[in-house]
Write a structure and sequence with these properties.
It contains 5 helices and no strands. It is mainly alpha-helical. The protein has a domain of 64 residues: lambda repressor-like DNA-binding domains (434 Repressor (Amino-terminal Domain), Orthogonal Bundle), CATH 1.10.260. GO terms for molecular function: DNA binding.
C-alpha cells in the first residue's frame, strides 16, 4: 500500500484588489482605471461582432494600435481618450464624484461598467 504525500500549497498573500499596486507600479489607480476601460472596449467590440479593422476605424486608430491596446499596452493613451473611444460604441460615460467613506483618507478612483 502506497501512502499519498500531503501536498502543501505555496504561501500566498491577499492582494489589495489592484494588481498594479501589488506589483509596485507607478500610478496604480490610473492603470487600473485604464485596464477597466479597455476591458469594456474589448467587450463592446466582441458584442458587436466587429473585426479589429472595423473597430479601429470606429475609434479612430490603426488596427495594430488597437491590437496593442487590447493586449494591455495602454500607456500611450489617456483615460479621457479611452473613455471617448467607448462613446464611439454608443456608450454613455458618466463620472460621479462623491465623498470618501472614511474621513482622513484620500479618495479613490474606480471604474464600474453597468451590467448588460
Amino acid at each position: 500500500m502506497t501512502r499519498k504525500s500531503s501536498t502543501r500549497l505555496p504561501a500566498h498573500e491577499v492582494g489589495s484588489g489592484n494588481v498594479f499596486a501589488d506589483l509596485g507600479l507607478p500610478n496604480p489607480e490610473e492603470r487600473m482605471l485604464k485596464a477597466g476601460i479597455v476591458a469594456e472596449l474589448h467587450r463592446s467590440i466582441k458584442d458587436r461582432g466587429l473585426t479589429q479593422v472595423k473597430a479601429a476605424k470606429l475609434v479612430g486608430i490603426s488596427q495594430p494600435d488597437l491590437s496593442r491596446l487590447l493586449r494591455g499596452d495602454f500607456e500611450d493613451y489617456s483615460a479621457e481618450r479611452l473613455l471617448k473611444m467607448l462613446t464611439a460604441f454608443a456608450q454613455d460615460v458618466e463620472i460621479v464624484v462623491k465623498p470618501h467613506r472614511r474621513t482622513g483618507e484620500a479618495g479613490r478612483i474606480t471604474f464600474r461598467p453597468t451590467a448588460v
